Every structure is written in C-alpha cells, then in structure tokens.
Amino acid sequence: MGLFGGQFANVVEWQEFRDDMLFWKWSNKEIKKGSRLILRPGQDAIFLYNGKVEGLFRDDGSYDIESEIIPFLSTLKGFKFGFNSGLRAEVLFINTKEVLVKWGTKNPVLIPTPGLPGGMPIRSFGTFSCKVADYDVLIEKVAGIKQQYTVEEVKGRITSMLDQLLMKWIAKEGKDMFNLQINAAEIGRGIQEDLDMEMLKIGISISSFAISSFNYPEEVQKMAEKAAAQSMIGDVGRFQQVAMGEAMANGKGGGTASDMAGIAMGMAMGQQMAAQMQQGMNQQQSSAGTPVQQQPLGGGTAPNFCPDCGTKTNGANFCPNCGRKLV
Predict the structure, then answer these.
(1) Which of 13, 168, 216, 288 stands the most exposed, by the fewest C-beta atoms within 10 Å?
(2) Are residues 269 and 208 in the same domain?
(3) Alpha carbon of 39 to those of 5, 32, 44, 63: distances in Å?
(4) Is the distance from CB of 93 to CB of 40 less than 8 angstroms?
(5) What is the DSSP string of 237-295?
C-alpha cells in the first residue's frame, strides 16, 4: 500500500466549506488519473497552473478531471496522465454568496462639533454585505499569497477605515450632531460607496452598509432625553394634570395618594361645572334685561335654596353665600 498509495485517484473539493470564508485553495497535492472535481452550490472553482489561471468552472456537480476538466484548460488540453505522473495544479474555490457582517467602532470616534474643542465622542454599529467580485484582482492581490481569506479579515480592513469615513459623512453638509439617526441611511450610503471603491482594489465589493445606531456619551444622552421630555410636556400645569389622570386611571401611587388625587380631581371638576352653570344663568338673565344680582324672584316668598349657588336660604331675603336677592 505504501508503494502505490501516491497513485490513487483523489477528490478535489472544498471539504470544510464555511460561510464566513470567501475563498479556500486546494493545493500541494498531485491530481491523479481518475480524480474528480466536486463543486457544490454557492462555489466556483478556478484551476491554477504555475500561478496562472487555466480555467473557471461555475456549475455545481461532480466532474471527471481527465475527461471533463482538462480539455477546457487553456494550456493543458493535451496533458496525459501517466502511471507515475500526475498533474500538479492548484484549485481555488470561491464562495459566491453575499455575506452579511456585523461591524462596530472599537473606540469612540471624535466628530468635530462647535463648542467642543475635542469633538463629540460617538460610537456606532451596524451591518455590511460583501462578496467576491473580481476573480483576477483577487488572485493577484490576495489569493496568490494566501491559502484562505475570511470575512473577519475583510472586517478588519473595513474597521480600519471606518473612523475617517464616519467623520467625513457625518460632518458633510452640517448634519445635526444630536439627531444623527435621522440621517443614518444617507450617511450609510456615502460610506458604502467609499468602501466599495476601496475594497474593489482587492477584488471584493461592498454591496450594502447600514448604520443601526449612534451612541452618545451618557451625559449627552441624559440631556437629550430631558429636552425631549420637556418639549412633550409643555408646562408644569399640564404635566400635573396628565400625571393625576394617569394615577387615577391606573390606580398607581398608593391608597392615600391615589384617593387624594381623586378627591382633588373631583373638586376641580365640580368647581368647573358650577362656574359654567353660573355663567350660563348670568348670560340668560342678562339677555332678559334684568341686572344679574338684583333681579328678584317675585312672589314675596324666599325660596328654600339659592338658584345661583344652591345654598340653603333659611327664609332670608338675600343668599347668605353669594348675596343674591331672593324676594
């Protein structure tokens, strides 16, 4: 077995395919007679001989290398396998899928801000999508010297450029530093265009770049929340009314506090209704041409209750509470 072990046919395949790997190189092996190429969905295979591209295969399936692959290789069409000789070639497997990657700033990015000499320290995070776009450039710039290339390595390149790009696109056109999220889509598009242009230099495209959130320093965040709360409430009186109404509706605040809030609300509503009734009666009496406070009821007998405020009269000619003339 040791004497003839090297003569056995082998299988050329990406055995441990990973979604987070953009390419993997099958190399340092001799392709023997009867060997087969296994190409799975989401993979392309590039045959390299002496460092040069000989052929590209895209359709998934199983292929006999001698009869189905070599006839299509540019300079190896006449190659014949011998008993003791095989084909020393490399096969570069390309992951053709678009990969979604999470990113985040390692340190706060100091964005130039009026009134802050050192700039506003802002963190940010989101996602971007990448895929292999130019095989020739990839082989020349990366695959020629690497056995594999992972998404983590792409992420490292992207992260190294993020600080400058965030500063560039946040500062562009004087965006509101305290409301960057509203411009997140526009900022993301600008960064994506710059990153795509830069990464295409190694054959990789950046098809999308999304900003999920901008994170401000804790002190700035608290100030923003306080300003938002004040703008929503408007004034203290309205705030108290809203809070009292919520306490009554939700039954919160404990027994005594809730009861007092209910009593106060009831008294306020009663006073408001009494005032509205008084105003309506006064308007009606004024329209009849009789002075409001001096119009007698007539009949020579005082009523038991004042028609204006409802106070018991006890037979008096004038109301003891509001002074209304009763007879």
Answers:
(1) 288
(2) no
(3) 25, 18, 7, 8
(4) no
(5) HHHHHHHHHHHHHHT-S-HHHHHHHHHHHHHHHHHHHHHHHHHHHHHHHHHTTS-TTT-
Q: Are residues 124 and 195 in the same domain?
A: yes
Structure tokens at 190: 């600008």
Average pLDDT over residues 124-136: 96
Stretch (H or E) spanning 191? helix 184-199
Residues 6+ apart with CB under 8 A from 202: 137, 138, 141, 142
Lookup: tokens for 158: 């992207």
Residues in the chain: 327
Contact 128, 165 (CB under 8 A): no
* Helix, strand or coil, per DSSP, at residue 321: coil
Number of separate domains in the chain: 4
The label of the residue with tokens 């087969």 reads: 36
Range of the domain at 258: 238-287
CA–CA dist 145, 164 (Å, integer) = 29
Most confident option among 14-18, 149-153, 276-280, 302-306: 149-153
Q: What gap in Å lies between CA 180 and CA 221, rounded to an integer?
A: 13
Boundary-marking domain end, from 184, 217, 250: 217
Helix, strand, coil percent content, the chain, rounded in steps of 5: 40, 25, 35
Residue 172 has pLDDT above 70, yes or no: yes
> Which letter, b or e, does each residue of 81-107 get, where b requires 16 or more Cβ atoms within 10 Å of its Cβ?
beeeebbebbbbbbbeeebebebebee
What is the model's pTM?
A: 0.64
Query: Which residues on neighbouring strands pair with residue 31, listed in sequence order?
Result: 87
Other residues' Cβ atoms within 10 Å of the Cβ of residue 19: 11
With pLDDT > 70 as the criterion, what percentage of the chain qualifies?
A: 70
